[in-house]
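Structure (tokenized):
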């Protein structure tokens, strides 16, 4: 009997499209407001019980489903809950009736289409949400049945073209996966996945930049609250910082996933082959040149003649921070560090957060190679401000400090104190950024070998663990440590 109910329900959902279409223009509570409100009350009460039971098979009620269905078909404008709750109901039926999942996916599609008509704007904020609704539709299609990748790709592509800024970050991951499936199954060429990759990573980088700027503002506000003794304000900023940090990690996590998925398409040989053909067709296409140089740079394919040619063409056609960056990369590889620094400084005016960070990182290394350690630190500090979650700038500063030991040979500890400051920066990098933790640990182990002995510290009237100020260009306070 239960199976028959489920089968009947699937058929009823399939019949609902035309019925729903007839009622999207009906009043908020439908043509029979009493029946609509009664059914809403019924399904919501059962739904809360089912929700409390963690959507278990034993707790679901067909009375709930029937009442929910009535509200959806007859009063689709009553509440957005009818759609979000409906998604959970369909999720249940997909999980428990996998052989009929496509029928339920079709019902999810119908829910999304109807919601976009009835609730084009978010009732709470008034902002358009059509693009996000469409993106979620594509995400659910792909999640529940990856074999329908082409359908999911087309829906997600439409959503992205409509307004990518609306779309929740998790849905973008599915868009790239569906695009990759399109290429892998011969439904699209490699340029499709390259274009999607660049489009998504540009958006993700921009959002990380915005969130990083917000974090800097929040940290400043928190410091002011601390100085004012405002404990409640500090607690509030801590919550905002935690939320902001979570968002940064979400964006970075999705970008990392997309980077990994892009790898099979991202060999330098493949990229150069695809891009060379495109550039030969349109050598003065500025958008194409930007795409070529951006992707080749991200995938470390900058040694190629194609990269240099595209960079030169782009710079000649449109001098810009982005083009300057690419020229700088080539000059750096040619060990022309002074010239490269000039271009990297121009590149710091780019709008792309990732590009600005890379420019400042490379600028710091240019100064390192020319022996201008102080300017190198300034550039690394600027890079850390662009991305407060990155550890690499601190590793660069650590190297700059370590390289300056000869400048302090006449000091109390004969220049060995710079390695304390260098290790401080390595520890900071390891704390901030797990991706550099291994490298930071190796640097720490190497620098500890240069610590002064216990005897040297003692005979200079200091002790292990004591605070110590390093003068000169470093100008930092560190902690005395001895070689063990």
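Design, position by position:
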């Amino acid at each position: 009997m239960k199976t028959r109910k489920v089968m009947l329900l699937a058929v009823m959902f399939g019949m609902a499209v035309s019925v729903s279409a007839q009622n999207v223009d009906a009043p908020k509570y439908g043509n029979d407001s009493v029946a609509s409100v009664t059914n809403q009350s019924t399904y919501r009460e059962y739904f809360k019980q089912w929700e409390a039971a963690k959507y278990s098979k034993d707790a679901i009620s067909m009375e709930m489903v029937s009442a929910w269905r009535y509200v959806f078909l007859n009063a689709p404008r009553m509440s957005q809950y009818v759609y979000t709750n409906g998604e959970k109901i369909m999720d249940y039926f997909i999980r428990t009736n996998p052989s009929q999942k496509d029928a339920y996916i079709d019902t999810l599609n119908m829910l999304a289409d109807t919601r976009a008509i009835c609730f084009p704007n978010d009732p709470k904020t008034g902002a358009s949400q059509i693009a996000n609704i469409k993106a979620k539709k594509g995400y659910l299609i792909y999640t529940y049945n990856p074999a329908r990748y082409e359908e999911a790709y087309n829906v997600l592509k439409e959503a992205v073209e409509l307004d990518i800024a609306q779309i929740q970050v998790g849905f973008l991951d599915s868009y790239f996966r569906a695009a990759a499936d399109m290429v892998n199954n011969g439904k699209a060429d490699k340029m499709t996945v390259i274009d999607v990759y660049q489009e998504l990573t540009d958006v993700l980088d921009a959002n990380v930049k915005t969130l990083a700027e917000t974090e800097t503002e929040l940290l400043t506000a928190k410091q002011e609250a601390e100085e004012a003794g405002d404990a409640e304000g500090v607690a509030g900023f801590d919550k905002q910082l935690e939320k902001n940090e979570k968002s940064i990690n979400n964006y970075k996590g999705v970008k990392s996933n997309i980077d990994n998925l892009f790898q099979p398409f991202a060999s330098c040989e493949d990229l150069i082959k695809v891009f060379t053909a495109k550039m030969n067709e349109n050598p003065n296409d500025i958008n194409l040149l930007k795409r070529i140089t951006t992707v080749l740079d991200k995938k470390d394919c900058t040694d190629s003649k194609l990269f240099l040619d595209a960079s030169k063409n782009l710079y000649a056609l449109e001098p810009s921070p982005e083009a300057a960056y690419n020229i700088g990369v080539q000059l750096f590889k040619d060990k022309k560090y002074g010239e490269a620094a000039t271009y990297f400084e121009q590149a710091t005016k780019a709008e792309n957060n990732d590009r600005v960070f890379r420019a400042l990182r490379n600028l710091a290394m240019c100064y390192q190679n020319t022996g201008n350690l102080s300017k190198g630190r300034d550039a690394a500090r600027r890079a850390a401000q662009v991305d407060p979650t990155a550890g690499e700038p601190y590793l660069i500063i650590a190297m700059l400090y370590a390289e300056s030991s000869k400048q302090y040979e006449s000091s109390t500890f004969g220049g060995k104190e710079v390695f304390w400051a260098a290790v401080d920066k390595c520890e900071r990098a390891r704390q901030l950024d797990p991706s550099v933790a291994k490298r930071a640990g190796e640097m720490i182990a190497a620098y500890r070998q240069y610590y002064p002995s216990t005897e040297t510290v003692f005979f200079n009237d200091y002790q292990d663990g004591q605070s110590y100020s390093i003068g000169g260009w470093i100008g930092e306070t560190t902690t005395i440590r001895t070689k063990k």
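Reviewer-requested clarification: Strands lie at 467-470, 476-479. Residues 1-8, 14-22 have pLDDT under 50 and may be disordered.
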